[in-house]
Specification:
Elements (H helix, E strand, L loop, with lengths): L1 H15 L1 H6 L1 H21 L4 H11 L2 H13 L7 H6 L3 H23 L9 H24 L1 H6 L2 H8 L2 H21 L3 H46 L1
Helix pairs in contact: 1-4, 1-5, 3-4, 3-7, 5-7, 5-11, 7-8, 8-11, 11-12
């Protein structure tokens, strides 16, 4: 159910609210921060009701953030003339910032659970998962900061593009991290965990296939564009 809710919210952002999100992103950022504040307040106050049971996982389990990150990543692997790419590319940066804001709820929840226990001897899957989480958080912070226009314009274009390539390892590592967290529950037969890891795996698998396909297409395009130059050089020789 939380995935369906995240899907509805994401659809509203990328389709119904695309133009205002592009033109006036600040109210959307403030709204995301307000929802994050509501999550923190509700968690501290111990809120328990039906509405909360739907809202809490969107923040705590990173469902909404992962879906928004997925949209941002998938836009990059669509063809140049794809209508979805044309529609979503102008708000890709804004969606990335919103995803980072929503991801803070997940990071804060697990940091509060495990940071006080850092003096303990973490081993195996937990140690690897926590180390991975720290790396992912660092990558997200860099991508988050450089997504803001003021930072982007202060950087050289080539440097900014190099930094933004960190999105590829960030996205893949995020999937690995979520899979590691869900796997024990999934193996124990938890239906929600099984469904979640299945959905995440399908999304990631589709992205990898499309990313590889686009890389091959780009390589063929570059090779085709370079052929005339090679022919001219041969004639001149």
């Amino acid at each position: 159910m939380r995935f369906v809710i995240a899907l509805v919210v994401s659809f509203a952002l990328v389709w119904l609210c695309a133009k205002p999100l592009k033109k006036y992103p600040a109210p959307f950022y403030l709204g995301a921060v307000a929802l994050l504040g509501l999550y923190f307040w509700g968690s501290a106050a111990g809120v328990r009701n039906e509405a909360w049971s739907y809202f809490q996982p969107l923040m705590q389990r990173c469902a909404l953030a992962f879906l928004l990150f997925s949209i941002v990543m998938f836009v990059g692997v669509l063809g140049e003339k794809n209508p979805l790419r044309t529609h979503l590319m102008p708000i890709r940066r804004q969606l990335s910032i919103l995803a980072c804001i929503f991801a803070v709820g997940h990071i804060a929840f697990y940091a509060a659970s495990y940071v006080p226990r850092l003096t303990s001897a973490f081993t195996g899957n937990l140690a690897f998962s926590l180390g991975l989480a720290a790396l992912i958080t660092a990558l997200m912070a860099v991508l988050w900061v450089t997504s803001f226009s003021v930072v982007k314009h202060a950087m050289k274009a080539a440097s900014w593009k190099r930094v933004q390539r960190l999105a590829y390892p960030f996205y893949v590592l995020t999937y690995v991290h979520l899979a590691l967290l869900l796997m024990p529950s999934a193996l124990a037969g938890n239906d929600v965990a099984v469904l979640s890891i299945t959905v995440y795996s399908i999304v990631m698998g589709a992205y990898v296939v499309l990313r590889l396909r686009k890389a091959l297409a780009d390589r063929r395009t570059e090779a085709t564009a370079a052929t005339p130059d090679l022919d001219l050089e041969a004639v001149a020789a």
